[in-house]
Amino acid sequence: MVAQAPSGKKPLPDMMTSIRIDKSGQVEIVDQLLLPHSVKWIPISTPEEAFDAIKSMKIRGAPAIASLAALSLKSSLSTEEIRSKSEEEVKKWILDQCDYLQSSRPTAVNLSEAMNRIRTYIKTHTSSSSSSSSSATSASADLVQKVQQICQDVHEEDLERNMTMGRLGAEWLAKKSGKSKLKVVTVCNTGSLATSGYGTAIGVITALFENDQLDTAYYAQTTPYHQGSRLTSLELTTLEIPACMICDTMLGSLFQHEDIDGVIVGADRVVKNGDTANKIGTYQAAVLAQRHNIPFMVVAPVTTIDLSLKTGAEIHIEQRPPVEATQVRGLNIETGKLSVVRITPEGVGEGDKPWQRVYNPSFDVTPAELISCVVTEKGVAERKEGAKDIDVSSIC
Ligand SMILES: CSC[C@H]1O[C@H](OP(=O)(O)O)[C@H](O)[C@@H]1O
Questions:
Q1: 177 in contact with ligand 1, CB cutoff 6 A
Q2: Average pLDDT, whole number, for the chain?
Q3: In whole angstroms, what is the distance from residue 253 CA to residue 199 CA?
């Protein structure tokens, strides 16, 4: 399925589609480590290939990694090797793959939520009682077919809910600001490259643009992976949405000198009290937004909500390899070739000397008291005046 351009217009260019599935059912991802300068499609047919793509961040974005994990499982279940197994053997194999895929990145809950949907089905699935080989084969085939449908649903349900959240978030923010055209800020990348299409926070920006309610979308570069300067920049320029890139260090200055109507971000995990894990740099944006009395909106599908955790202190924050923060990927403007350059002295982030350390968490946690509202496809949960928590259960 090709990701849709805003409001279902012409399909987005390939380079803005995180996952594509061809007529034969072959799943492919665009290697996001090479974007925006090179478009390289990588076939993904097995959980091992999906695990590598997710772990190495060839594909990233909480909903997109859940989709790829599920689609890789679906592909593997079509192989003769699986179809020759007994139902019990198939069940065990699927449960093992769910554990393996879920271990690829720990913070985004969409991945574990998708795997749990499969686990729940398997654990509640009652096979046919007959032990004859033909009925055993059909029972195994029935189990495979049902799990494959769940995998396909994980991928396909994302686009429509993103467009719903875009509409709900844009309506809330336009009403809050009372202005005809809004200036908004976003962090990281939450568009078609992070989802099955349209995006979450960028979905709200797109909806504002479609409603002619957008003045400018400011986006932070979001180092060290540069989701903003490489990916959000690609999406907003391709969609021709009025945008302005800022360095991560410029948020405070922007808030001092521009009349910003809202900060809109995605999420990797929103817990019961509304505390939210999102890309590193989100927390400081929230602190600055409160300082400047700017509404702070989190946009995420219900599959990002984790009611099993009471507060953000319980969220496992992924630490990326230190060396990733010492390097930058880009296009060498002299040679025209893609390069990875090291910006630090040799050994920083790799050596074991006390002066070579690098701190490189992939996410941080924004307390609910800094968040104005959380938007899911089920609605908008606002934080009440003076409250420290947000009741997100009302929008699950
Ligand atoms: C709709 S994407 C949600 C979330 O995922 C991103 O993290 P990463 O790029 O490391 O996968 C970022 O935190 C986005 O806000």
A1: no
A2: 94
A3: 27
Question: Has residue 2 got a pLDDT over 60?
Answer: no
Protein residue whose Cα sits closest to atom 7 of ligand 1 = 61
Ligand 1 atom closest to the CA of 108, numbered from 1 = 5
Tell whether 366 and 272 lie within a shared domain: yes
Distance 236 CA to ligand 1 centre (A): 17
Q: Which of 59, 278, 374 to mutate to test the pocket of ligand 1 (most atoms within 8 A of CB)?
A: 278
Pair (231, 307) in one structural domain: yes
CA 116 to chain centre: 18
Q: Does the beta carbon of 362 sit less than 6 angstroms from any atom of ligand 1?
A: yes
Q: Sign (positive/negative) of CA torsion 81, 87, 89, 90? A: positive
What is the per-residue burial (b if ≥16 Cβ within 10 Å, else e) of 108-121? bbbbbbbbebbbee
Give CA–CA dist 95/103, Å, rounded. Answer: 13
Query: Ligand 1 atom 6: the closest Cα is on which residue?
Result: 61
CA 296 to ligand 1 centroid distance, Å: 17
- Spatial separation of the C-alpha atoms in residues 246 and 207, rounded to whole Å: 22
Residues involved in catalysis? 268
Domain that holds residue 25: 6-159
C-alpha 205 to ligand 1 mean position (Å): 16
pLDDT tier at 132 (50, 70, 90 boundaries)?
A: low
Contacting residues for 160 by C-beta, under 8 A, at least 6 apart:
377
Q: Is this complex's ipTM strictly greater than 0.95?
A: yes
Do the domain assignments include residue 279? Answer: yes
Q: Is the CB of 197 under 6 A from ligand 1?
A: no
Q: 189 CA distance to ligand 1 centroid (A)?
A: 6
- Taking the model in full, what pTM does it have? 0.95
* CATH code, domain with 225: 3.40.50.10470
Ligand 1: distance of its center to the CA of 187 in Å? 9
The CB density around residue 233, as the number of other CB atoms within 10 Å, is: 19
**Any ligand 1 atom below 6 A from CB of 266:** yes
Least Cα distance to 269 among 254, 282, 258, 255 occurs for 282
Is-contact 381 390, C-beta < 8 A?
yes
Rounded Cα–Cα distance for residues 102 and 331 (Å): 33
Give per-residue pLDDT as tens, 35-78. 999 999 999 999 999 999 999 999 999 999 999 999 999 999 99
What pLDDT score does 133 carry?
Answer: 61
